[in-house]
Design a protein that fits this description.
- The complex is a heterotrimer of chains A (188), B (199) and C (233).
- Helix content of chain A is 49%, strand content 22%.
- Chain A is of the alpha+beta class and 188 residues long.
- Chain A has one domain (53-187).
- Chain A has a five-stranded antiparallel beta sheet.
- Chain A is elongated, with a radius of gyration of 23 Å.
- Chain A starts with a helix and ends with a helix.
- Chain C has one domain.
- Chain C is built from ten helices and two strands; from the N terminus they run ααααααααββαα.
- Chain C has a two-stranded antiparallel ribbon.
- The chains are: A alpha+beta (188), B mainly alpha (199), C mainly alpha (233).
- Chain B binds chain C through residues 22-29, 32, 73-77, 80-81, 84, 110-111, 113-116, 118-120, 123-124, 127, 169, 171-172, 174-180, 182-184, 186-187, 190, and chain C through 24-25, 27-29, 31-32, 71-72, 75-76, 79-80, 82-83, 86-87, 102, 105-106, 108-111, 114, 174, 177-183, 185-187, 189-191, 193-194, 197, 230.
Chain lengths: 188, 199, 233
């Protein structure tokens, strides 16, 4: 009997602290998660608008054959005609750097733009990679064939981790794109 | 066959190329404090490997079947409690079965709980494309990260055992010279592996 | 009486017992995060917030928490605050949350917080515990700031994102990588130990020690990587 009382005496305060903590966290979560979801949505809308312009309809495309690195695929149409796709993809870097970006590819197979979704797990100076100049110089307007040939994509010194990661992310986006366009050809 | 290839890929990219100490800078506190005896370092590494492998296995299960979806915000608190319990368990185990190791590790044993590498590996496995959602891969991830950590501290214990404090300027004695030496070892380690790229 | 205590606490947190440079705690985050000054300050503030809140709560509950479960209780409380900071940052400062990345969650295993809970907050009243939290947090932020400044300034040629040296400067990329982090931290600690020795005589009049040694310390690190001879003026 004494033993149980002793265990209860030391365990109950800990249990109480756990319960209160979880309750507080649940409360904070309740009012922050809608804000977070809203942020994501407006970021996405802003990115879509900058890639494809106004007046677009987007819908999520599901495909069991997509690689794990492809998080979400949006098909974008304007006035009923397919304008292109937007891929939320990740890419692994030379060491362990991972990057998640939105890659917009037009119906002509050319990259329209790339934007930041999240800059990798461990912070690095790689944030510099995603400057307008770097992307427009090396990626915008290119097709996947051109990227294969152009092995001259200059990796920023000190940011090799993220540059390789970006390149791989773009490759993954194109792989998914190929899947979709081949599927379309087949169904024609 | 593919599973084996995947496990191997995970191992090389976490234990070697993306080594937790030299590349991700996790697990530094015990790394700095570990003795200059490679044997003690190895003992520490083994204890950490045991904890990290188990921790990745358990946290994976808890995340996948309990937390995913609605309760993800509890990840930090649940994971750290799991780790704290595992370390407590290891302490008792070592005390009974290998008391000599228990004694030589001293305070560093309970400090495994606050070793960023342990929580780091558990969190990273959840967020990693390749291993998340797969029990075997997630557990191998924890194991590999721990092996990399062990490799780092054993190598470094060897380096430290050769450093003589009397040769070092006064301001640098103790932690500073250890850090500078660690930086040089890190450069060599990363440099040797620079040819390998996994993407 | 009270004011001198507070001054002493700040002298300890910022200088005598600086969590990073003297106690060598919180090293993991400091090596990874300090590639830019902005991230360094952000991390410093996040840690200070968690540290102060947890110190306060633990001090308030110190008579309620039984000795046998104290570490577990501290961990629950600390991880609670870390999760709150995570959620608030993700909602209201998402860019900052992204730069801190995985290391935001890792604040829970930042040894500084557990160490202060165990050695101070559990044995002192709430108000001094809050001051301790702020003092130690500020000391940590200062250390991160110095580390980040050296690494960003010489490793990337920028400060807070603004180019400082112009196009002709070739950055020493190594400084922004992990090995560079080890080396810069080692040198800064050596520098700090050197100054601590020179100025430790002034501890008696502790309110003087802080502003006096604060200044040369802030100027020196800019020269540290160039003149490694480690000599002060």
């Amino acid at each position: 009997m004494k033993n149980v009382k002793y265990v209860a005496k030391i365990a109950l305060p800990l249990l109480a602290i756990c319960i209160v903590t979880v309750a507080v966290l649940a409360a904070v979560n309740a009012f922050t998660s809608p804000v977070i979801a809203q942020n994501r949505q407006s970021e996405l809308d802003a990115n879509m608008a900058s890639f494809f312009g106004e007046g677009i309809e987007t819908s999520v495309v599901e495909n069991a054959e997509f690689d794990k690195s492809v998080k979400i695929v949006y098909s974008v149409s304007k006035g009923g005609a397919l304008t292109g796709y937007c891929f939320d993809v990740t890419g692994n870097g030379a060491y362990k750097g991972k990057i998640e970006v939105l890659v917009a590819i037009g119906a002509d197979g050319r990259i329209i733009g790339i934007s930041n979704v999240q800059n990798g797990e461990t912070p690095s100076i790689g944030g510099r990679v995603l400057t307008e100049d770097y992307i427009s110089e090396n990626y915008v307007g290119h097709t996947s064939a051109q990227l294969e040939r152009d092995k001259d994509v200059v990796f920023l010194s000190g940011a090799t981790k993220t540059s390789t990661a970006l390149n791989n992310a773009v490759k993954n986006a194109f792989a998914a794109y190929r899947l979709l366009s081949e599927g379309k050809e087949a169904s024609k | 066959m593919t599973l084996l290839m995947n496990i191997l890929t995970v191992f090389v990219s976490v234990a070697l190329v993306g080594n937790y100490v030299f590349s991700e800078t996790l697990g530094i506190c015990p790394f700095l404090g570990v003795s200059s005896k490679p044997s003690t370092a190895l003992g520490m590494g083994l204890a950490v490997t045991f904890v990290m492998t188990l921790s990745n296995a358990v946290t994976f299960l808890v995340f996948e079947y309990l937390l995913k979806g609605k309760y993800e915000y509890l990840q930090t608190i649940v994971f750290i409690l799991i780790i704290a319990s595992l370390v407590q368990f290891i302490e008792m185990l070592l005390k009974k079965m290998v008391p000599s190791l228990y004694k030589s590790l001293g305070i560093y044993l309970p400090l495994i709980t606050t070793n960023c590498a342990v929580l780091g590996a558990a969190n990273n496995a959840v967020g990693n494309d390749m291993v998340s959602g797969d029990f075997i891969l997630s557990t191998s991830y924890g194991f590999s990260a721990a092996v990399g950590f062990t490799l780092a501290i054993v190598i470094f214990a060897g380096v430290r055992s050769r450093m003589d404090e009397k040769d070092v300027p006064e301001s640098f004695r103790g932690v500073p010279i250890t850090l500078v030496a660690a930086g040089i070892v890190a450069m060599v380690f990363n440099g040797l592996l620079s040819g390998i790229s996994f993407g | 009486m009270k004011l001198t205590d507070v001054k002493n606490q700040f002298a300890d947190g910022l200088f005598n017992k600086n969590p990073l440079f003297v106690q060598v705690l919180g090293t993991c985050a400091s090596l990874a995060i300090t590639t830019t000054v902005k991230d360094s300050i952000a991390m410093g503030i996040a840690v200070t917030a968690v540290l102060t809140c947890s110190n306060l709560l633990i001090s308030l509950l110190r008579k309620f928490i039984p000795n046998e479960v104290r570490i577990a209780s501290y961990i629950v409380i600390i991880s609670g605050f870390v999760t709150i900071v995570e959620m608030l940052m993700n909602a209201y400062l998402p860019d900052l949350a992204q730069s801190l990345g995985a290391f935001l969650a890792l604040i829970v295993v930042n040894c500084i917080i557990l160490a202060r809970a165990e050695s101070y907050a559990s044995k002192n009243k709430p108000l001094p515990s809050v001051v301790d939290g702020i003092a130690m947090g500020l000391g940590f932020t200062l250390a991160l700031f110095l580390l980040g400044s050296v690494r960003e300034l010489f490793g990337a040629g920028t400060f807070l994102g603004f180019s400082v040296f112009g196009k002709n400067y070739t950055p020493i990329g190594m400084l922004t990588s992990p090995p560079g982090a080890f080396i810069v931290l080692g040198c800064l600690i050596a520098l700090f130990q050197y100054f601590k020795k020179r100025f430790s005589v002034k501890k008696a009049a502790s309110s003087d020690a802080k502003p006096d040694s604060g200044k040369p310390q802030e100027e020196q690190p800019d020269n540290a990587s160039e003149a490694k001879e480690g000599d002060a003026s």
